[in-house]
Specification:
Number of strands: 5
Number of helices: 5
Helix content: 25-40%
Shape: elongated
Strand order of the largest sheet: 1-2-3-4-5
Order of helices and strands: HHHEEEEEHH
Number of domains: 1
Low-confidence stretches: 125-131
Radius of gyration: 24 Å
Structural class: alpha+beta
Strand content: 5-15%
Largest sheet: 5 strands, antiparallel
Mean pLDDT: 82
Length: 236
C-alpha cells in the first residue's frame, strides 16, 4: 500500500511533460491561424459596416443643409479627381470627423494593392493626386474619384479601414462605395449582380483566380452574404 501512494506522488515524468507540451504545440499550430483569421474577418466586417453607416449618415446630414441629393453638384467628367475632391469638401467633410487631409506625396506612408497584388491605384502614390486622401479620427482613410456617366452622376469613395495599417489590400482592409445622384443610399460597386457575377465579372471580381482584378466587388459580396465573410471568400 505504501508503494502505491508513493508512486502516485511522483507525478508526471519529464518525458510525459514534453510529449504533452508537444501535443499542445501541434494543436495550437493547427488551430491558431484559423482563430486569428476568423477574428480578423469579424473585425473587417465590423469596420466595413461602420464605414457604410458613416457615409450614409453623412449624406442624410448633408441633405438637411444642401437639399435633396439629386440637386447636388456631382461634376460632369468620368474619373476626374478635382471634381470629386470638390464634392467631398462641400458635402461630406462637414459631416465627418477629419483628423488630417493629405495634400502632398509625403502624407502617404503605405502603398495600396489590388486583390491580385498590383499597385492600386496610381493616383494614391502620384504627386498632384494625393490631396484626395483624407484621414478620419476613427483611423480610416478616405479618397474620392468621379465615376459619372451619361445617365447617372456618381462619386466613388475608397476607404482603407485602418488607414496606413497593413495589409493595404483591396478586399481585406480597402473597400469601395458609390454615391449617386438618384439615391440617398450609399451603394458598393457590384450591388445587383448575382453572387457568381461578383466572383467572376472581369476587372473588378472578388476572386484572385480571375486574373488581374481590382477586387472592387468584394464589399458587395460581403453585404450580399449577410455581412459575413464566408469560407469561399478570397481571404489571404
Amino acid at each position: 500500500m505504501k508503494n502505491h501512494f508513493e508512486s502516485m506522488k511522483k507525478g508526471f515524468t519529464l518525458a510525459e511533460v514534453l510529449i504533452t507540451l508537444g501535443i499542445i504545440g501541434v494543436v495550437a499550430a493547427i488551430t491558431l491561424p484559423t482563430l486569428v483569421a476568423n477574428y480578423q474577418k469579424k473585425q473587417t466586417v465590423i469596420r466595413l459596416k461602420e464605414a457604410y453607416t458613416l457615409l450614409n449618415q453623412a449624406i442624410k446630414n448633408a441633405e438637411l443643409k444642401e437639399g435633396d441629393i439629386e440637386t447636388w453638384d456631382f461634376g460632369s467628367k468620368h474619373f476626374d479627381y478635382s471634381e470629386a475632391q470638390n464634392f467631398v469638401e462641400r458635402y461630406l467633410i462637414p459631416q465627418l470627423k477629419v483628423a488630417n487631409k493629405c495634400y502632398n506625396l509625403y502624407c502617404l506612408k503605405s502603398t495600396k494593392y489590388t486583390l491580385s497584388n498590383k499597385t492600386y491605384p496610381g493616383y494614391l502614390e502620384t504627386e498632384g493626386h494625393t490631396g484626395r486622401s483624407i484621414f478620419l479620427t476613427n483611423g480610416m482613410q478616405l479618397w474620392a474619384y468621379s465615376d459619372s456617366d451619361q445617365d447617372i452622376k456618381k462619386i466613388g469613395i475608397g476607404i482603407d479601414l485602418n488607414g496606413d495599417g497593413r495589409p493595404n489590400i483591396v478586399g481585406r482592409d480597402i473597400f469601395f462605395f458609390l454615391i449617386q445622384n438618384n439615391s440617398s443610399q450609399v451603394q458598393m460597386p457590384g450591388v445587383g449582380w448575382t453572387r457568381d457575377g461578383l466572383f467572376n465579372i472581369t476587372g473588378n471580381a472578388c476572386n484572385t483566380t480571375a486574373g488581374n482584378v481590382a477586387g472592387m466587388y468584394c464589399g458587395a459580396l460581403i453585404q450580399q452574404d449577410g455581412w459575413e465573410i464566408k469560407s469561399d471568400y478570397p481571404w489571404k
